[in-house]
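## Example record

The block below lists the input lines for one assembly entry, exactly as stored, with component labels intact.
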Amino acid sequence: MGNIHGQNFRIATFGESHGPAMGVVIDGCPPRVPFDINFLKSELARRRPGQSALTTQRKEEDLPEILSGISHDGFTLGSPIAIFIRNSDQRPQAYAEMKTAYRPSHADYTYDAKYGIRAIEGGGRSSARETAARVAAGAVAKTVLKHACGAKITAWVESVAEIKMPTPAQTPSLKQVEASPTRCPHPATAAKIDALIRAARAEGDSVGGVICCVIENLPPGLGSPVFDRFEADLGKAMLSLPATKGFEIGSGFNGTLLRGSAHNDEFIRKGGKIRTATNRSGGTQGGITNGEDVIFRIAFKPTATVLKPQRTVGPDGKATELSAKGRHDPCVLPRAVPIVEAMAALVAVDHWIRDRGQNAPFGRCGRKA
Amino acid sequence: MGNIHGQNFRIATFGESHGPAMGVVIDGCPPRVPFDINFLKSELARRRPGQSALTTQRKEEDLPEILSGISHDGFTLGSPIAIFIRNSDQRPQAYAEMKTAYRPSHADYTYDAKYGIRAIEGGGRSSARETAARVAAGAVAKTVLKHACGAKITAWVESVAEIKMPTPAQTPSLKQVEASPTRCPHPATAAKIDALIRAARAEGDSVGGVICCVIENLPPGLGSPVFDRFEADLGKAMLSLPATKGFEIGSGFNGTLLRGSAHNDEFIRKGGKIRTATNRSGGTQGGITNGEDVIFRIAFKPTATVLKPQRTVGPDGKATELSAKGRHDPCVLPRAVPIVEAMAALVAVDHWIRDRGQNAPFGRCGRKA
Amino acid sequence: MGNIHGQNFRIATFGESHGPAMGVVIDGCPPRVPFDINFLKSELARRRPGQSALTTQRKEEDLPEILSGISHDGFTLGSPIAIFIRNSDQRPQAYAEMKTAYRPSHADYTYDAKYGIRAIEGGGRSSARETAARVAAGAVAKTVLKHACGAKITAWVESVAEIKMPTPAQTPSLKQVEASPTRCPHPATAAKIDALIRAARAEGDSVGGVICCVIENLPPGLGSPVFDRFEADLGKAMLSLPATKGFEIGSGFNGTLLRGSAHNDEFIRKGGKIRTATNRSGGTQGGITNGEDVIFRIAFKPTATVLKPQRTVGPDGKATELSAKGRHDPCVLPRAVPIVEAMAALVAVDHWIRDRGQNAPFGRCGRKA
Amino acid sequence: MGNIHGQNFRIATFGESHGPAMGVVIDGCPPRVPFDINFLKSELARRRPGQSALTTQRKEEDLPEILSGISHDGFTLGSPIAIFIRNSDQRPQAYAEMKTAYRPSHADYTYDAKYGIRAIEGGGRSSARETAARVAAGAVAKTVLKHACGAKITAWVESVAEIKMPTPAQTPSLKQVEASPTRCPHPATAAKIDALIRAARAEGDSVGGVICCVIENLPPGLGSPVFDRFEADLGKAMLSLPATKGFEIGSGFNGTLLRGSAHNDEFIRKGGKIRTATNRSGGTQGGITNGEDVIFRIAFKPTATVLKPQRTVGPDGKATELSAKGRHDPCVLPRAVPIVEAMAALVAVDHWIRDRGQNAPFGRCGRKA
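Predicted structure tokens for the full assembly:
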């Protein structure tokens, strides 16, 4: 259990890091939505390892194969969409040491504690490779959202370790985010982050940071109080990603420093719509979207794999020392950007369908029924 | 939708702030667990309004009535446990202004946007009064956890606005937390927080802050990767509470400032068990509990109700000014402490049952089958 | 677990037969639907014990109390609707023998086997009294369906033991069904059934039979292949009722005797719509409604409580003899009619909302948003 | 939605009849269960088209590929098990007529009504080919059940059209069932059924019938009243299969003809266990297994595809005549036997895990933790 996400737009993911393939089955996608496999490929390429000098050098083409759910002329059928991605770069031998020593702050020990058995090679299901399936599902979710309400999702790297970009005046464009392999849209900060990650790699160490994400153009009314508040589902989705340690929406932890009179978002009338003058709420009130941008941040810890020697114990409980060897990803944040967007899209489309129904007409953009 | 929580230990809550009653139905409670109504009452009393000068002066006895699920001699039957709590202090007339003006940073507008109808009086379902049902369910969950694995949950107020207590050497006791109406277990800080809240009340303003919570004695192995990670479910539960803006576990946002070599928790052998030397992970790795304390923090924004005049619009879109009158809760944090504990208990017991089954024997503490 | 029904229109029921109350929480009811408490009461009255000489003489007023979810002017709010019904006629002493002997074909033994504890009095959760909560929820579901699509649900007693009414030319009216306490709409058959049930009572014995049910005016398109086919969900709902042993839709078991060429429903054009010339399919094809009447049958076994002596064993495994005393319901079918309708309404409204969304506008009948 | 089955042992299936592949993702399989791919293949072979002269001549190898969830040495990992099966025999051109005419009693019209788009070739998702994924999942479920409690599931063809075998004295063996391509274990009846199916094929017509199924060795205590009764979940699972029109358990519809005193199952003590002297209940009481054999029947209508000309209309509403050509399956029952068993296994394992937990130890049979 635990590998199915969503209530009305549901995904079931599968795949071990060094098994034959990763993949996803999407149940509940509305019918008649135009599907673009090139968009799916480009999203997977943004997450793909080996895309720049800043990330792990594992080589994966990450070419998706669509097994079901799409018509011959490229529209969703309303039936389950199955996508799978072959693993090509499997090096089980590189992980021999994992049998005899639990890697600190990895999931080796807890998987043994829970399951009593473990796919030794490369972390199995706890590997970040698992997120490839999420990005594939997210590409479908983004497509549905675009046609349903024009919603757009943009994430970017806001800080790495102690280096933080200034707050942007407006949401960066995809082009600005993709301009640097760091996925930090502020060029001066991006340069510093680039240098920092290279330095961490050289030292065999790793760094964490914060990703910021914005969902634009969501209609008011999404979210299901009291338990399935929009931000609660967003938070769960983000905290289900490997290496995440925190989530905040709108003013977040810093908002606790303000007085209520300074924190409240006054309502105004603008362009014929009810809007808020400020957006400390981050786009939701009472767990329901209010039509403003949904804005949130996620904390990623520094990658657990470091090349420096560390004390640990093995499955037999004996103390030992571990020095990781070979490939290592000194900072997951640049590659986590499309993953964050994918999870945001999955949450938003799930709530949209819950509100409007699976067969809400796609008159404008989808194929006519 | 949205009023049911959990997968194997499920709760359905109901009740509008100024309707006849609040309540909960619990489905999936294991049988033969000794049930203590006095514990239920004491938990509700900790959340009750009017318990100190620091909180809202609404008067509610919050006496629970058990309608089902408990045997004559006080054991759970395995059938649904229904608990309801009458609302006594209903003052619909105090909320007349809510009909003509959306209160800033409240859910008035978003409820109208979603449902097209609203229980005008006192916030209806979006009122913090809704959390009484959660605390009732949480009392049952705490009881099951105690008998299942001896788990104990303790939350406390760590900061209010800019006033923050020092990090405690060990988890505070319930007695230490309850010693001050602020529920801050550090007496010097508690005194400052007390003064700050009184000042905010006097100014007709409000303050927010951070609650810290620890779950002790959970066994390793709880949590269901990849989507239902233990901390993901915790995060969702906390972010489903009114006024929350952030969640972090273990090192959280500050952990992003460390290098991996400094952040990792080395494994050691201690007392015959595999333990970690530090606990920056916060008690989970890969989404599964590792047997260490689960430690997390929640950010609460300053209460939206302030007595100062604010600009807003009404349902008709016309600009207006709003000055709240009457009772007002300048800081929700002290009363939120038992609510946070309740949600933590609900998440933990849900995962425990998912792992062990609904009918896991309670040989030691429960009535013999 | 097991006390929550539905996916998008969800109900959680509670209550032991001789506990303080029965009840239900409804989560997911669309907002702005006019709610009529008199209709709720009349539905409960149809299920109420003691309504005629043919049923159990337990005295229950079955007066519902609405605790939440309805606005002051009588519209659904979109928030959970909680309804509870006090138990008044509690006679724990009448069930003393249940402690020492498992009643044959009752759930005493299996509840002990599953839970290791049991509400001894009157069957606890396994009592047919539990269905009062279903009827209350069904009244809400029927109201939503009426306003959503004009759907109407009618059930009736088709046979009791070997006495069976002829197949009616058209769906009987509610008035025809209610004309006899047997709820068989064919007067001559009703008279025979009435006599049969009285004879069974006089002999201390019991009888079973078949209920037929029709849902009219459902739109084409409801049902979610492959697992949540409309008839699969209907079947589950009916088989979740006490004493049911079988379910069939359309031609059912007798349909297995026909050749395909004789069984198929040819499509025709009628009144500008695509219709079928016959309805052996029973209103669904491929698990999706086709716009024809949904027609199905449910088999109820003879009531397990008989006054004749029976061999059995007790919890200690010792053989004994049991003779039930006091009140006894010789035939559950007349009272099961509104229960069957309630479950059908719950299934239909759940699929309607799944298809159209929780907030599908109720422009015509509901209050304007 | 609708393509995910189960609560704690969940499966998500996918695949259109003439798309690239069919498959399933299994979430919640307990870890450390020995997995035998040959058993999986043999189960698929029992469902495979073209296995005898009695079934469709579509040629499919139905070779499964395991993509995840199994360790190198053949044990389940507790992570999702993904299985997929390539479609090889695709003949889109054979279905050209389906574009212009709705096949009577097929799902062509209802899929159009629901989705507004349809995989024209061979029925898409509504094809019986979809059940290949169920059989694959069922093979895993059967394996878990065998190791968990020794449960065994056997289905067989009891009747085809008007030809019915006598009630067997004991549950037939797999060998007896497989002895005839009809899967009727009574040789004389099997011969008549064989002849009947051949005659139906020769006439371009089709026949239906009844399958009986028994689950042996389930422990008492499985099933979750009130809605998720064991037989309710069984009924839903069976009614989710294509072409089913009815389900009954134990005495079923015929049981309605008995008096209660004759229908009740008296309890006796036998072999140190509490048993029932008869089994009209069919292995459950109050929705919970009682340790007796679970016995139930499913009605399958005659296949909708017949070669005789039939009246119908097209998507444009115009009347037309349709004569199916090419391959046709005159009777689905022989191939439905392993599918019924698969669904029964999925229901039983889901309830077993719900009761005992996902990580119930498999000390005896599974790999030691």
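Confidence is low (pLDDT under 50) at residues 363-369 of chain B. Chain B touches chain A through 107 residues (CB under 8 Å).
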